[in-house]
Amino acid sequence: MILVPDLQDIERSAQSDAERKVARLLHLVPSSDAVAFHSVKLRTAPGKQMSEADFVVLWRGVVIVIEVKGGGVKKFEGTWYTIDRHGDNHRLNTSPIDQAREAMFALRNILKEDGLGWYPSEAIALTPDIEHPPADVGWKASHWLSKESMTVEALASAFDEIARSAADAPRGVRPARSEELRNRLFGQFSRLPVVDAQRGAVIDEQNLATDEQARVLAGLAKNDRILVLGGAGTGKSVVLAEAAKQEAAAGRSVLVTFMSPGLRAFFEPRLEGRSVVVREFAQLEDSRLYDVVLVDEAQDLMYPEAMDVLDRILVNGRANGRWRMFLDQNNQAHVDGRFDQEVFDLVREEGMEYDLSRNVRNTRAIVHMVQEYLGADVGDPGIVNGERIQWVPALDGESRAHALRLARSFKKDGVPPSAIWVISAAAEDSLDEVVDGVRLVSPRVAKGLEAEHVVVCDLPAEYSDLTLAALYVAVTRPRVSLHVVCSDSDRRRLQSLARRVGG
């Protein structure tokens, strides 16, 4: 069964050993369709405190909301208590079953407001440390699971019985399609991590998974070959990291690969401790086979020789194996790699295609600037907050020095140095150095990554496919603010470029 978040994250974040015990068991339940979401917080009504479901399980089209209680549980003189390992009693406001029901109804209201049709749902209690559940007329015996259900076979059988007991849709009410329900649950409960997040309105807006990202995550278990298309800032790398966790949790041998060397620093911390190999494409060895390969910035590898390598390292080959390719169809491939349209057309025929069209990195001002000057589609500008783009004048030949001075002024204003990049749009591939505490990089090093505040300098003296691609990478890296240092002649060339794009 798929766990969201994965088992390693649940082991770290769960509030009780009982929840960890249940998570380990759910992880072992053999099912490619079932998914369990852990620690789901739900607002019961406006202004009220949050209700929480320990687990929400989608099982054979039925939503099962689970309340987990470790230790003992008893009812005395009409009041419910839990009993800890020291024998001390702790009063509960209501029974575990009623807690699960409250969360179930809260979820139903949220999804109803979201336009989802009717779906079957059940609320159950799971007490893994007691031999037999307490008897009560307030619930079905099948809906309180105890120690005897704490095996893979028994738990799967119990879920089957609970699903069979779920009510059918009322007459005249539109039921939700199973795939729609699955996608909505992923959208409600998948929270994708933020890179180097500071506080502020822009960062807050970037915390939520988009509906499209949720569809990709929901579709992973059902499709062997997936092609995810999205412009810069649509969250491809973050979704890829979550996808790699799912694949590793399913017991598969997993490779994450890419052309841009800077992406290693992005993926390794996010996949640390998991059975995932993170390796640059140039360092791959044909001698090792993988059950699944995930490729980031796959537009860099859309040429015959690269596809041949993937064919050799994938179990069952590229045409019949299991892969996930994430790519930007804009002109980034000119920065690092090659893009062959015929190869791309062939790959499209082999995989299920998903689009990411909502930009979750760049502010609206940056998205509009990229569209105006470069004619590139980086998605709909979902982030409305953020500063306007700052055009900073400089003399010819002095833009880099001016950019570094500007970046140092950010530091003096309290911005952490790690949140500031200066990107030289015309720099050589390998440029990556720290100047007076400020990181100065080339577009190739920055490609696929992001920073909160970016200062772009050294604009191209003329625009070709290569220099356009480099500028595209540079101006789509920032999350919060973008400053472009340019001379009068730089600005005139940009305006001429905008007229060509617009015409």
From TrEMBL:
It comes from the Bacteria. Residues 16-115 form the NERD domain. This is Nuclease-like protein. SUPFAM superfamilies: P-loop containing nucleoside triphosphate hydrolases (SSF52540).
